[in-house]
Each structure stands twice: as C-alpha cells, then as structure tokens.
Amino acid sequence: MAEEPTAADYRRNRQRREHDLAIFYEQQAPDRANFPTPTDRDRHRDIFLDRLETVIDNVAFGAVLELGTGTGRDAHAVAQRGFSVTGIDLAKANLAATRKLAPTTAVAQASAVELPFADRSFDAVLSFSTLMHISSDDVALALAECGRVLKPNGLAAFGTWGGADTDKILADDHYDPPRFFSLRTDKTWRSLVAAHASVIELTTWKPASSVDHYQWIIARFNERSG
Ligand SMILES: C[S@@+](CC[C@H](N)C(=O)[O-])C[C@H]1O[C@@H](n2cnc3c(N)ncnc32)[C@H](O)[C@@H]1O
Hints:
By secondary structure, the chain is an alpha/beta fold. The protein has one domain (7-221): Vaccinia Virus protein VP39 (Rossmann fold). 36% of the residues lie in helices and 27% in strands. The chain contains six helices and nine strands, in the order H-H-E-H-E-H-E-E-H-E-E-E-H-E-E. The chain has helices at residues 7-32, 39-55, 73-80, 92-101, 139-149, 186-194; strands at residues 63-67, 84-89, 106-109, 122-128, 150-162, 166-169, 180-183, 198-205, 213-221. The strands form two sheets. A seven-stranded mixed sheet has the order 3-2-1-4-5-9-8, with helices on both faces. Strands 6-7 form a two-stranded antiparallel ribbon. Helix 1 (7-32) packs across helix 4 (92-101). The termini are far apart. The mean pLDDT is 94. Bound molecules: S-adenosylmethionine. S-adenosylmethionine binds next to helix 1 and strand 2.
C-alpha cells in the first residue's frame, strides 16, 4: 500500500513547482510587460481600493502587500492612489520590472507561502492570478501567512482563474517548463478562504477571450486568523 506523503514530501514538491514557475516567469517577463490590461480586473481592483480608502484613516499610511506582483501593473495603480506598496514574486525579472514601472514599491523575492515580513505589517493584501499556482494542499499556508502579516481585520482581495477542482501541469505552455495550475470551483475556493477569514464577496466573470472564469474574492482576516 502506498505511504501517505509526509510534510517533507509536500515541501519538496512545492519547492520543485516554485522553481519551475520562477523559470517560466523569468522567460515571460519581457513579453508580459506588454500584455493588454484586463479591464474587468482593473475595475474590481479600483473598487477594492475605494473600499480600502474608507477603512484606512490616512491612505498615506496604508500598507498594501501584493502577492505575485508580476511586472508591476497593479502595484503601480495602487501606488498611484497613495498607498505604500510592497510586492513579492518568485521571478527576479518581474521584481525588476515592478521597480521600473512603480519605483516606490518595495520588492522581495519570496513565496506567498513563506512571507518575509513581521506579523501585522500590512493593512491589505492584493493578489491577481497567483494563488492558482499554489496547490490546494498548500494554499492554506499562503492564507495563514496573509492572516499573520495583516493587521487585525485587514482586508484581502484575491483574483484567480477558476474551474473544476484539478491540480495540473499545462500540457502545452508558452515556455519550458510548463506551469502548474490548481484550479478550484467557486465553492471550494470560498470554503478554503473561509477557513482563515470572513468572506465578504465572491464575484466571478468570464472574459470573452477565455474558456475559463475569473474569481474575485474579498475577505476580512479577523482576530482569530493567523
Ligand atoms: C500569471 S502571473 C500574474 C502576475 C500579475 N499579478 C498579473 O496579474 O499580471 C503569476 C505571478 O505569480 C508569481 N508566483 C507564482 N507562484 C508564486 C508564489 N508561490 N509566490 C509568489 N509569487 C508567485 C509568478 O512568478 C508570476 O509573476
């Protein structure tokens, strides 16, 4: 009978996936900077920033952490609104692109499952199209990290591609090694987040150019989280 994977097995597998994702995104960074702006996402991001403005007394002191900052498009938009932004990513090329586009952003090469920040450092966490690269076995680690680094009652907004519950490596991707994706139904994703935070809203939409749908979840990490 096959033995159950140990914590060390999960860690090894996660590190292997992160290593491959970093290689993929290092290669993609120069093209990614020219990708068209997804208007649905921008709209939801801006509504989230409006919400933050109502709960943070002085925006200039509002600290926002972005997980998977990519080339810095969203970090730039958040900084433009007056917040102080910190971005993490696995790919150094993306961090360099972020610094170029949004020079006030503090950046760190790190994984969302192991954040190099002190407890209660941020007012909000924002993330687009990143948490779906973390397996459903490991995503609880990332959510617990959000709870740890957020101040009590801190808000988070996560955008992810959704689908039937599956962990898979793309059969045909643009660069080698192909990417790992963990797609989750709306129900699964909501319950994973609800184990760490109070879900305020889960909205979905289907971009015309895609067969998959996009999930946008806003949650409050209260005192019991982290
Ligand atoms: C699809 S891109 C999205 C980038 C950007 N947020 C956007 O929407 O344009 C995914 C990004 O997440 C980063 N990433 C993947 N897994 C990560 C992890 N565990 N921790 C931090 N960043 C990660 C990748 O390096 C990549 O930059």
